[in-house]
Amino acid sequence: MSVASDEQATRSGHGQPAGGDARLDALVHRLPPRLAGTVDYLLQPSSRWVRIPSGALLIVGGVLSFLPVLGIWMLPLGLALLAEDVPALRTSRSKAFDWIERRKPHWLDPSVSKK
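and the corresponding structure tokens:
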């Protein structure tokens, strides 16, 4: 087992990537530690009743991104959280990850350090 997979196993608590998708885990790994821990918690299967309202609120915040404090970054994060529980969104999330792999492969590079 590599160092990166050991770290992922430790962060997710059960040895599989956050949300069951290694690409999602790679993106979560790039987040600041505090936010990454929160997203890891929300992606656990037992957090479903927290994840659904959180995803909905993030989507609303993304739509209202013209207001101070809120931002467009909230929209894709909310959709990614809801994709865990809504099968129709999983297909879109997978297509988005395919696009990221083709156009922005450095986003999924585990050697890139957090800022």
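(Above: one complete record from the training split.) Residues 1-14 have pLDDT under 50 and may be disordered.
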